[in-house]
Amino acid sequence: MWDKIKDFSSEFFVTGDPLILGAQVSIAITMVAIVFVLTYFKKWRWLWTEWLTSVDHKKIGIMYIIASILMLFRGGVDALLMRMQLAAPQLEFLNAEHYNQIFTTHGVIMILFMAMPLMFGLFNIVVPLQIGARDVAFPFLNSLSFWMFFFGAMLFNMSFVIGGSPDAGWLAYPPLSGLSGSPGVGQDFYIWGIQISGIGSLATGINFIVTILKMRAPGMKLMKMPMFTWSVLSSCTTIIFAFPILTVTLFLLFLDRYMGAHFFTLDGGGNPMMYINLIWMWGHPEVYIVILPAFGIFSEIVSAFSKKKLFGYKSMVFALMSISFFSFFTWAHHFFTMGTGANVNAFFAVTTMLIAIPTGVKVFNWLFTMYRGKLSFPTPMMWTVAFIPCFVIGGMTGVLLSVAPADFQFHNSYFLIAHFHQVLIGGVVFGYFAGLYYWWPKMFGFKLHEGLGKWAFWFWNIGFYVCFMPQYALGLMGMTRRFNEYNFDMGWQPLNVVSTVGGFLMGIAFLFQVWQIAHSIKFYKKEKTGDTWDGRTLEWSIPSPAPMYNFARTPIVTEQDDWWEKKQRRLRGEADAPEVVQAEQAPLEPIHMPRNSGVPFVMSAFWFTAGFGFVWDWKWMIVLGLGGVIVTMLVRSFTYNTDYYIPVEEIERTEAAARGAH
Amino acid sequence: MANHNAHTEHGDHGGHEGGHGSMKSYVIGFLLSIVLTIIPLVAVMNDMFSKQVTTVIILIMAILQFAVQLLFFMHIRDEKKPRYNLISLIFGLVIMLTIVAGSIWIMTYNAVAT
Amino acid sequence: MAEAIKQKGHLAHAGHGSHDSGDHGHGHDHHDQEEMKTFGFWLFLITDVILFGVLFATYVVLRNNTAGGPLGSELIEMPGIIASTFILLTSSFTSGIALLEMNKGNKKGLITWLIITALLGASFIYLEVNEFIHLVHEGANIGTSAYWSAFFTLVGTHGLHVSLGLVWMTVLIVQIRRRGITPVTKRKVNIVSLYWHFLDVVWIFVFTIVYLMGVM
């Protein structure tokens, strides 16, 4: 009996590595500590009723952001471990297997469990407020999306201490990721973690498209929408067409591993190239999915801090929508070296170059918006300004890579690594940071400390260039990705050391941000106006943080940047349009709101159970998990009492409290 | 919120449901779909044409069949403006065709030994 | 105003002040609610189009990769396939009639036609399961070769969709019996019927590309 338990646990838990042992111990201690704190302060009920079951888009958004910052920490630690290994490969700080696992989890976590949830968090917080809605179109589904993401991410992260991490790269190419190349459970954690959270992403995509198309405040025509909302629409459009591809591709890989199918195997007529073809049909649009909202954020911020209307609104809309369409026509540039022949490569090289054009249009729009504006440079604007040169360089190297014959030289080298980190950090991360700083007061009712934010900003930026510029050179010197060792006589070590220093500078920057948040909470200063930055769009017309029903009265929109124009009109002493006046003086009405529900949490927990069962091939657990999923779906289907009214008196109380704070 | 917008953008609004689709259109649709199934079946089972011609015929029949379902059963025509359903469907079909055609094109050069 | 209701089913309409604008009453919201859900479901169907598109692409790319194993044309038996095709076509038609009955407000007719549709769907599944059993007996399963992997996955995914539709219809019939024809149940019937037509369309392409072109 004892031996059996010992055998089982040696297979079940990852053993034999001091780093991982440390992680296991600290995870266990953290969990005990969380349980203790919640119990000691009697917060379990609060956690359940206020957060876990909440269908409020603002709370869901905050949960997304907290989760993504934790994931940023983990992905960042992975990155620093890799940089330490590469600075001194002779020391063998990480062995090959461990190194493979770390670059795999770094990639997956940063894209799918950091960038995506941070993006969804901003969607959730901002979009309904910007369009004057009381929530998203399907609040229940929204909560379900979050929990699917959360449990998927947990399942994936678990592989670190239980069973072993996946180690076949972030896109898990077969045959390496097939049963022959990866017999362990790590790859199964990969499949199920991504699959479960992917369902959530798909649902979010649908949810926000419907929200934006159907729930805008009266008068807000499509061409009067704030640019961030446009970018969310284009990103979500891309999501709903791209994510099903990922779902199917991973499902086929699962069938290969679990049922002995022969889609991507080397025997039985399978074709691993087909996997690469399919995964990039999702993978390429995916990078646009995460970058488009960043473009939207920059547009909002540039216009707000230049005190000018966005230059070239229509061309911006056109650029966003055309990128989301053309992103589906460039996927083969990720495998020019597959040997697909000149025609295919030429076609995809041209489409790749074409898609750079709308992006270039946007850069000019931002520059012209700033031109002759009344500029100010608080942290959100600093990130925006830093983004422009960084993204332009990243974009240019991308165009270099798109030249198919040259790509045979660059392919899988550090040149490529430097390129995509430059667009993903310089574009996505900078963008989301800018968005976080910009909308933070709207979320929590206080501003983040500017001084510490500037320290973080400079550490991030300098660290970034110190880290990645040498990698372009390393790539041209012949260093390829995914090696944990190189010989000293290759001459790569000095630049690698520089790059590692840059990595740690960014690590310090992250610490500054943590400090900044802690400091701002400790010296909490209530943001009284609700309009922190003298903003332009509807979210700044209501108190910060927004009351649970967002708008006591549905706003009437008459033009683009409606809130700004209204403020200007009032400054000039002009009157609002009669319908606006009428709407603002109308008596309050009870507000119809969705009820909280525990079903999303429970259903996602069952998905997690099923996924865990599939990973270990424990039939009873699969049945339990899938059975639970079906039962919770039925429970939901038969629940008809899903909403309630907020009475007028309560709205009045809330509004009076918010006004009293003015 | 939504409804206001709906008002401004398409005057009055009505959803998908209700008010359209008659017995007649369902019967016509059904008969058409039967005919469009029988034609390719006969063409293939009796080897009436060369392989290429048959392929073209049966694919065209399938596409027509799709159109019949869309028009007579799913009432795509009855949608009020703005036609988000139709727009999203067209976009989806374009992407779907890209996936299929692109895969075929790319993988032609990467076929493995059967 | 109460436009922000996003959740299905709401009971109390009473007790609220009327709107000055008049036409945005609660019944109206409701209509929007259900319209939004129908649109959301339509978008879901489009994602399903992509899903099947990828499966078709995989099937077409791997159609010749039989690795020396049996070919599709050797094992597929067309009579059963033809029967199931006509069954599914008919069920698409009957689900349309159910919709007409619903619009007339005829609860009994609605339930009857839904049951007929579900029975036709069940016989389709029965035939498909039989076909699969036959194929496995003949020595073709999901692990036989890339061709058969793609075949079983494509056809099986469609079958799974139909089976889910059956469960859904059953649940819906229970709800209609309990609650009658309300805006909520109406919307549910509408989307299940959209789903059903959609599966019919997918089957037409399975029939054409997998079966007809397979035996050619």
Automatic annotation (TrEMBL), chain A:
Entries under CDD domains matching the protein: Ubiquinol_Oxidase_I
Which UniProt keyword terms apply here?
Cell membrane, Copper, Electron transport, Heme, Hydrogen ion transport, Ion transport, Iron, Membrane, Metal-binding, Respiratory chain, Transmembrane, Transmembrane helix, Transport
The superkingdom listed in its UniProt entry is Bacteria
Family statement = Belongs to the heme-copper respiratory oxidase family.
Q: What is this protein called?
A: Quinol oxidase polypeptide I
Q: Which InterPro entries match?
A: Cyt_c_oxase-like_su1_dom (IPR023616), Cyt_c_oxase-like_su1_sf (IPR036927), Cyt_C_Oxase_1 (IPR000883)
What SUPFAM superfamilies does this protein's entry cite? Cytochrome c oxidase subunit I-like (SSF81442)
- Could you list the residue ranges that cross the membrane? 20-41, 62-82, 102-127, 139-162, 189-210, 230-255, 275-298, 310-332, 344-368, 380-404, 416-440, 452-474, 494-518, 598-616, 622-639
PROSITE patterns xrefs: COX1 (PS50855)
Essential cofactor(s): Cu cation; ferriheme a
* Pfam families named in the record: COX1 (PF00115)
Provide the GO biological process annotations: aerobic respiration; electron transport coupled proton transport; respiratory electron transport chain
- Membrane topology designation: Multi-pass membrane protein
**Signal among keywords:** no
Kindly report the protein's main subcellular placement as a broad class: membrane
Query: What does the record give as the reaction this protein catalyses?
Result: 2 a quinol + O2 = 2 a quinone + 2 H2O
Question: Is Flavoprotein there in the keyword field?
Answer: no
- Any one GO CC term of the record: plasma membrane
User: Pathway, per UniProt?
Assistant: Energy metabolism; oxidative phosphorylation
Q: GO MF terms on file?
A: cytochrome bo3 ubiquinol oxidase activity; cytochrome-c oxidase activity; heme binding; metal ion binding
Q: Where in the cell is it found?
A: Cell membrane
Q: Which residues form the Cytochrome oxidase subunit I profile domain?
A: 42-558
UniProtKB/TrEMBL annotation, chain B:
Membrane-spanning ranges: 26-44, 56-74, 86-107
Residues of the signal sequence? Answer: none
Instruction: Give the way it sits in the membrane.
Output: Multi-pass membrane protein
* Main localization of the protein described in the UniProt heading: membrane
Provide the protein's localization. Cell membrane
The Gene Ontology biological process annotation of the record reads: aerobic electron transport chain; electron transport coupled proton transport
Its keywords, alphabetically, are: Cell membrane, Electron transport, Membrane, Oxidoreductase, Transmembrane, Transmembrane helix, Transport
Q: Which GO terms describe its molecular function?
A: cytochrome bo3 ubiquinol oxidase activity; proton transmembrane transporter activity
Q: What family classification does the UniProt entry report for this protein?
A: Belongs to the cytochrome c oxidase bacterial subunit 4 family.
Q: What is this protein called?
A: Cytochrome o ubiquinol oxidase subunit IV
Q: Which GO terms describe its cellular component?
A: cytochrome o ubiquinol oxidase complex; plasma membrane
From TrEMBL, chain C:
Which residues lie in Basic and acidic residues bias regions? Answer: 17-31
Where in the cell?
Cell membrane
The topology of this chain with respect to the membrane is: Multi-pass membrane protein
Q: Is the S-adenosyl-L-methionine keyword given for this protein?
A: no
Please give the chief subcellular localization of this protein. Answer: membrane
**Which GO molecular function terms does the record list?**
cytochrome bo3 ubiquinol oxidase activity; cytochrome-c oxidase activity
Question: Is DNA-binding a UniProt keyword of this protein?
Answer: no
Q: Which residues cross the membrane?
A: 39-61, 81-100, 109-127, 147-174, 194-214
GO:BP terms for this protein?
aerobic electron transport chain
**PROSITE patterns attached to this UniProt entry:** COX3
What are the alphabetically sorted keywords of the record?
Answer: Cell membrane, Electron transport, Membrane, Oxidoreductase, Transmembrane, Transmembrane helix, Transport
Q: Which GO terms describe its cellular component?
A: plasma membrane
Domain named Heme-copper oxidase subunit III family profile is located at 1-215
Region annotated Disordered sits at 12-31
UniProt xrefs under InterPro entries:
Cyt_c/ubiquinol_Oxase_su3, Cyt_c_oxidase-like_su3, Cyt_c_oxidase_su3-like_sf, Cyt_c_oxidase_su3_a-hlx, Cyt_c_ubiqinol_oxidase_su3, Ubiquinol_oxase_su3_dom
Q: Tell me the subunit arrangement.
A: Heterooctamer of two A chains, two B chains, two C chains and two D chains.
Q: What's the stated role of this polypeptide?
A: Cytochrome bo(3) ubiquinol terminal oxidase is the component of the aerobic respiratory chain of E.coli that predominates when cells are grown at high aeration. Has proton pump activity across the membrane in addition to electron transfer, pumping 2 protons/electron.
Protein family: Belongs to the cytochrome c oxidase subunit 3 family.
This protein is called: Cytochrome bo(3) ubiquinol oxidase subunit 3
What gene is this protein a product of?
cyoC
